[in-house]
Design goal:
heterodimer; A: 151 residues; mainly alpha; B: 139 residues; alpha+beta; 3-stranded mixed sheet; 4 helices; 3 strands; 41% helix; globular
Chain lengths: 151, 139
């Protein structure tokens, strides 16, 4: 199984990569930094929801094409319930990734650097925070059902 | 403009949103940009639209925003309050407070962000946590 953290590790290599397409590299870094963080969390929540009342709905949000991008909303909102600071870091990573992929105004190296730093801080913190997952289970369940109802 | 003035002004405007009956007098939902400009008070109108959609009372969130902005006096450089809409999911909206801080390095920024976050979310109803975002940027 692929480890999403490798995406964040790759970002550090990409920072040193010499190419004439430097802005494209900066944008790629912002994208991988977000996806490394997002996928890691998505799978953590999937493992923690296994056997629960919302397992089916959560898996559908993750895997069914009809869900579109709804899983991003679910994962970030769940993270915010468990650890608001981490949730805001993940939201910040998503904002930057959206800018990198959709907004063609200049995307600077400093933004790519910030993306890596945010992802590093995020991944370091989330491991501890998710140990409290059960405390927040009812709120997590509510979010999953709310997002699922949008399909 | 001094931060204390901005915070006071913001608080006055936000209090105005609590006036009884104000929600009933709102017009149809407007497609106008949902951006807050502290002096003009544009957000007061638009912010109510956000609250109307969420059908939640704003008091706790607004007071928490004001308290954090006040406590950051001296470090804060600028801030804005927006409705953040996701590029790939337009039904997903979050009230976003972006705070620009003059800081020497990232470590300082994260420390300020973490502290403000703790203070902010500790005074926000737990069910509202996922409806608000506190984002810090280094200037």
């Amino acid at each position: 199984m692929f480890d999403p953290k490798d995406f964040v590790e790759l970002c550090n290599d990409l920072m040193r990569f010499s190419t004439s397409f430097s802005e494209a590299i900066n944008r790629t870094i912002a994208g991988r930094a977000y996806y490394g963080s997002f996928l890691l969390t998505r799978e953590k929540v999937r493992a923690l929801c296994r056997g629960s009342a919302v397992e089916r709905q959560y898996n559908l949000l993750c895997d069914d094409p009809r869900a579109g991008g709804l899983i991003h909303e679910a994962v970030i909102r769940i993270t915010k319930q468990i650890d608001p600071f981490a949730g805001d870091l993940l939201l910040s990573l998503r904002k930057r990734r959206n800018r990198a992929d959709y907004d063609l105004t200049p995307f600077r190296m400093i933004e790519a650097r910030d993306a890596i730093d945010d992802a590093d801080d995020y991944i370091r913190g989330i491991v501890t925070s998710f140990r409290n997952f059960n405390v927040y289970y009812r709120l997590v369940e509510r979010i999953i059902l709310e997002v699922y109802s949008k399909i | 403009m001094a931060v204390s003035y901005i915070a006071t002004s913001l608080m006055e405007e936000l209090r105005a949103t609590d006036l009884p009956g104000i929600f009933r007098s709102l017009p149809e939902v407007s497609p106008e940009p949902l951006i807050y400009y502290p002096v003009t008070g544009v957000l007061v109108y638009n912010f109510q639209l956000f609250l109307l959609e969420k059908t939640r009372h704003p008091g706790g969130v607004l007071e928490a925003i004001s308290r954090v902005l006040t406590s950051l006096m001296g470090q804060i450089y600028e801030y804005s309050i927006n409705i953040l809409t996701d590029k790939e999911n337009y039904n997903w909206k979050t009230l976003e407070v972006v705070i620009g801080v003059r800081s020497k390095n990232r470590k300082d920024l994260i420390e300020i962000w973490r502290k403000a976050s703790k203070e902010f979310y500790s005074s926000v109803d737990i069910e509202d946590r996922d409806k608000v975002a506190l984002i810090f940027e280094k200037l």
